[in-house]
Amino acid sequence: MHTPEALAKHYIPYNAKFLGNTEVEAPKGTEVVKDAVRKLKFQRHIKKSEGQKTPKVELQISIYGVKILDPKTKDVQHNCQLHRISFCADDKTDKRIFTFICKDSESNKHLCYVFDSEKCAEEITLTIGQAFDLAYKKFLESGGKDVETRKQIGSLQKRIQELETENSELKKQLQDLEEQLMIAHVPPAGSISMKPQSTDVFDMVPFSPVSPLVPTLASNGCPPPPPTTLPPDIRKDLFGAEPFDPFTCGAADFPPDIQSKLDEMQEGFKMGLTLEGTVFSLDPLDSRC
Fold it and tell me: What positions belong to coiled-coil segments (predicted)?
């Protein structure tokens, strides 16, 4: 039906409807295939009553196997290698149905694939048979090495795909760690990085009269305001008030009667300093002083 070059170097495409696949007990047999077809047809009727349509697929047949692809995206849904296909037949009672049994590479179970093609069911079955004949001739010519080579290539391709997936996951984890490190080392906006000062056992900065104190940052990240300097002639006590000296107050600071009392006390204090061995107790509240 087809040239050997078309099946060996390329592939023969067909369009069909995919009813699905189901596990079977035996790798071959007409009755085995009939049971699988009845089962998948019943499931398809149920899905059709629920409004689901039978999906369309593209078949690519070559001496290496049968690929089942999405006709629009060309994504491979199933890749059935030819040396794993054990049986292929079309339904004589329903000319649109054809099937083949393939051993799954992962579960080692035999799966029956069922398709619906309105015009090409028998032709597709014969094309798969022709691919078997060509593959068997190549097997005899190579002494069986060709099949073993294809198996090794398939295993290596699967391992390469696993390593690529693992590599992409490791790259993603490394990128996440780098982003976390960058976020941890970025200082907040408006902050000034300063060298921390050494403190004593009481967590206080030691005072040095030679070197001025380094201003520390406030809790909000802003530098503290500069200290206010007062004129040297203005002195204040602990509570911020100027010290009181009753003897240096001017006459206008107190009423005349109080000011006269203070003057008498000041004169008496000066006189008491000239008397030897005499001690005066100056009490402003005592009128006898």
Answer: 146-180
